[in-house]
Every structure is written in C-alpha cells, then in structure tokens.
Amino acid sequence: MSKFTAMATGNGLASLGVEGANAAAHALSLPAEAYGNDPQLEVMWAMKAYQHAEIYFNLISSVDPKFLKLTKVDDKIYSAFREEFGDLNIQVLDPEELKSDKAKEEWRPFCNKFEGIVEDFNYGTLLRLDCQKDYTEENTIFATRIQFFAIEIARNREGYNSVIYNSNSKKQSTEKSS
C-alpha cells in the first residue's frame, strides 16, 4: 500500500466525522501564510490531493477522456499550454521539466495567467508521470492544479489517456463475457 493510499483510507477524512471534516475544509481554505509547517495540515493536503487523483483516475477509466471537460476554460488552458509548451512530452513526463529551477521559471508566468480564472490554480495536486499507468508512488509527482489541468487536458484531447479508458473497457467486457 502506498503512502497516498494509507493516508486517504485508514485514518482519512471519514474518520474525522462531520464536524472534523468541516473543520478540515475550513482549515484548507485559509491562506498558506496562516500556517507554519503544520504536519497535520500537510497530511490533510495529501489526503485531499490523493482523493482528487483517485476521482480523476476513476473518471478517465470509465468515460472516454476525449469527451471530458475538466474546467470551464479548457480551450483557453489547452491553447496557452500548447503555445508555451508545444514540445513537452506529455505521454511520459520528465520531472525536471516541471521541477527544475529553469522549469519553474518557465512555468510561473503560464500558471499566473490563470490566477482568478481557475479556482485554486496554484494548489498542490498529484500528476501521473506516465499517462499509461495508475497513480503510484513511483509514477506520481506533486504539481500545481493548473499544471495538472494543462497536461491532463492535453493528454485527453491528444488521445494519450485513452489507453486507461480502453484498458478498463476491455477488462469490463471480458468480465461480462466470463
């Protein structure tokens, strides 16, 4: 079991109860400056990021990703992304192209274009490195939400995420005929 799975299951948000979950949601809505390096807050963020990843993976497993709309401004995100990062290999991401100092300088203006347009554009989100694989510790990187949207919208439109959908569809067809 990965760290992500362990955090999101066993002692996850469900164990907090309604009041605890509401308090956690409120805490997560406060600006980062309101906190130091609070380990409990980091765990809550990790759980929220894991839940987002799990929902997204289930979505692309059950709906043809070519038809998914992730935000109200998918067209704008996709156009800006491909204009800025036209050569980026989105099928298998190189972490250096997202995390190196040079990459951060290139991504920052792109990300900031979406401040006020995409809710929580700079929140942390889990992103798969190889789009043909599930979220695992080895295949996951922490990225901003707008990076996630840009890359996943491109993967959906360019057909790279279809592998996940097609694989799941075949598996379901095999199970039905057995």
TrEMBL record:
GO terms for cellular component: cytoplasm. Residues 41-165 form the Polysaccharide biosynthesis domain. It comes from the Eukaryota. Transmembrane segments: none annotated. InterPro entries: PBDC1-like_dom_sf (IPR023139), PBDC1_metazoa/fungi (IPR008476), Polysacc_synth_dom (IPR021148). This is Polysaccharide biosynthesis domain-containing protein.
